[in-house]
Structures are given as C-alpha cells and as structure tokens.
C-alpha cells in the first residue's frame, strides 16, 4: 500500500470514528453540511426557513384525506382567455396518512390534449428541493418572465399527460408538519408517503385511476423513483387499495447506483478534458475506499452510510477543486460567483399574496430547497436503488434512463454504466443492442440503446435539467416513450436541438 492509500485509509478510519460519536440523527439535523448550503446557494435559492415545521399551527383538513381546489394563477398571459374551470388546474394538500401531522402539497394540471392521456407524476431531487423548480423552469405548463408574469410553455408535459408536481419529502416546498418526527430519513418513509398520496389522489379523481400511470423525475429522484415504483407495484400485487395502472418509470440524470456512478466521475471529467491523466489517476485512488464504504452501508446501516457519503464525495469535491467556477450541472457554462442558475423568480412569484391566495397555502412558508431534508436523507445517499429494478422489468414495467451529456454531477457515463451492468433476463440482449440515433422530425436529439422494457438515452446538448435545456426533445421523448415508439424514426426534416 503506497503512502497516498495509507493516508486515505487513515482518513476513512478517522471518519468512521468521528461519525460513530455522533449522538443522533437529530444532531445532524441541527448542523446541515456545507455541501447542502452550497447546493442550494448554487441554484440561487435562499429559503427563509430550513424546513417547514410549523409549531403550534391549527392544522386544517382533519378528517379529509385531500383538500383540493381549482385555481388560476394571476398574471398569466393567456390570449385565449380561458377560465380556471376550462384549464383544469388544481392545487391541494394531502393529509399524510402515516404521519403525526404531515401535509403534502401538490399541483395537478389536466392534460391540454385529453383527460384520457396518461397520469404522470414528477419528483424533483435535491434531496429536499421543491418540484416547483421543474414546474416553472423545466416541464410545467408555464414559464416565469422577469416581470413575474407567466407565459405558456409550448413544450410543457401537460400537452401529453395529466401531470402531478409533488412537494416531497415532508418539509419541502409548501409541504409541512407541526411535528419533527415526520421528517423522513429513508426511501421506505418517502415511498410510503407517496403511495398513500397516490391512493388518496385517485380516490379524489376516480376517472383518472384507469389511465396509464408513469413516474418521472431527476437527480436524487434516482433514489425516489425506483423505490416509489416498487411500492406501487407491491401495492397492486397485494391489492392494498385502488389498482394503479403503472406502466413505467423514467429517471433523468439521476443518482441510483452510487458505487458505479462515483466510479465514473474521474473518467467522465478526464474524457471531457476537465482534468489531466495524473489528476484522474490520483483521484481514483480513493475509489476502493469509497466502494468498500458503500458495501458496508448496504449491510451495516447508519454509521457506515455517513462514512461512505463523506469518503466518496472527496472524489467529486477533488474534481470541483480542480475545475474552479465550472457549473457542475452543465460543464459548458461557468458559475458566476456562487450562482450557477438563477431560479430566484420562482420564490418571488410564489411569495406574492395573490398567488398564495389562489393556491390556498395561506401563511405557510415556501421552502425551495431544504437543507434539513437534505441532511436527514444523508444516511440514504449511498444506498443502491438499482437492486429493486430488475423485478419491475421482469413484470413488464418499462424503465427509461436519460441523461444530458454535459452534466457532471449525475453524468451520462455513470448512468449508462449502471444500466448496462444491471442483471435481468434481458441483460445480454440489452448490452448487445446497437446504439441508434434518437430522432424527432428527422433531427438527431440523442443516442438510444433499448431492449424490451429497458431504454437508455444520452441527450445531446443538455445538462442536468434536460427538459429545461432541450424542452422540445424532452416532450417528444416522453410522448414516444409512453406510446412505446421511442426508437422509431421520423423522416420529416426539422431542426430540433437548441443551439448552445
């Protein structure tokens, strides 16, 4: 063992010792790590509260699972002048069944095409970031203009689906509780809450329960999505409640199998010219320790999971230290100061009294990204969520993993590797399948590998947030994937991919 490896072995043992001395998870909650603050600051999101724990609040909606209202956003520029009833836009709270006092907030937008279109749920990652980030900047019905008016998104996913945007886990966005025991720490708590919400939603909207259902999201939702899909599938098999017509789940630039994905960081950074060979080799000397820590996390529980998080993130942090002010969500761009994206108009818009009145949130704080939720999920970070996916594939539930090619933090290379390494009955055929152009109207928008229910798509000219960078391509991707025609070519020539 050379001196570098010995020093990192010593560091790993020190980390294990120090983590073992943490008095409790509550101690972590009182001191969010710098990385959480950095993540949130990088998105130019600065919530007033670290989490929505509302002390002494008089909780409404007792005795009712769902409290939902139709609404129309103020300042919506809509030349057609349609009414709120015609729009079919809803906002609501779900009284979380298995919680002490939790309330989950959601937006629901009926399809602009047909109410018989599939029901799609979108989950934003973080962990702890509100799904309103996607709603207003990625695939929702609207975009926010600089004067805080709303304009229609030509490529909103509500054009082909009835779409839900949910603030979860508890304490994120407008979701809240009056009891800190409702903070979730693992995928069981997260997926159980989402399953209970979905049951209540279909009870409120029985006309939608027969529609095809798809789970989508990005980033840390690479954990949420497989866990939620498995929970829905189990609920169906055990006939727990309303049957959910689960057809597929899609993960965009996600974190799903950390052992494989952390191993791809230095390779991706080297391939993209961000680091030199010597730096690549030095950084990768940490990999054996990272992989060992992740294995321990899978069998040993909390302390080893915290150690894995700390050890493995030295890999990512070492790359960031070398590339400086690079935007690690899109390496084509630079961060200006500490800000990589400016999503601050979302907070300004949602904090307007007229908007709060329209969606019925009263005085509840909007928490764009919660450092407390982020910290509470640290023990979950290094767990492998790929393990539950093969059983879903074997039962015919489709999976699409897609990734923008210029994202570093959840890069396409790591995602491609775990998808190709996954053992299932179609593994050999998937690995042998050709990589073909993903074409929309004759223009190549990405490279696709698929076999049976499994598809992997590398999206051209996009970073971490594919629907934001390539809105038209992402809408076509969703539409074709839901219809089962993702690999079909269209010969009509048309420029599709946005310019850099």
From TrEMBL:
Alphabetized GO MF terms: serine-type carboxypeptidase activity
Lineage: superkingdom: Eukaryota
Enzyme class label: hydrolase
Localization per record: Secreted
Alphabetical GO biological process terms: proteolysis
Entry keyword annotation includes Cell wall biogenesis/degradation: no
Chief localization: secreted
Full protein name: Carboxypeptidase
